[in-house]
Amino acid sequence: MMWYLDEDAIDKKGIAKYGKLHQKEVELCFANLDRLITWLNSGMTLQQAMHSGFFSDEGEDVYRIGQQRKGMRETRLYIFARITGGKVTVLTIGDKSTQKKDVRWCHQWVREFKAKSQET
Which long-range contacts (CB under 8 A, 24 or more apart) does 45-52 make? Predict the structure, then answer.
């Protein structure tokens, strides 16, 4: 199976807004996302990727890709990874101050997505 990135981010406005304030942090998160997809396509599992230092599980198929660099805002890019089909969807981005709200929003989005998928 080949993993691929869904080009349509769910929270485009939020990501763009965050990117205006923290462009380098967003670039680094997306670079880490590219690394993750490359690893997955080389045979690494999501569980194995957890040892990377920038990738972690937030539950309910939501994962966090982070970046931490001295002098930069610690940023978290949230994704939804569908193991069946290998599709990675970018959900939203935030920092430590919005983490709880971001994770709740992502979990709710995934629940609604899964419910809609079961209806069809």
Answer: 46/81, 46/83
Phi, psi of 68 (to 5 degrees): -135, 110
* Entry pTM: 0.93
pLDDT in tens, 72-111: 889 999 999 988 889 999 999 999 999 999 999 999 999 9
Q: 97: closest CA among 75, 77, 78, 80?
A: 75
C-alpha closest to that of 113 among 6, 22, 19: 6
| Residue entry with tokens 């959900």 | 91
Pairing relation of β-strands 62-67 and 87-95?
A: unpaired
Q: What is the pLDDT of residues 10-51, one digit of tens each?
A: 999 999 999 999 999 999 999 999 999 999 999 999 999 999
Q: Which residues of 59-68 are buried (b: 16+ CB within 10 A; e: fewer)?
A: eebbbbbbbe
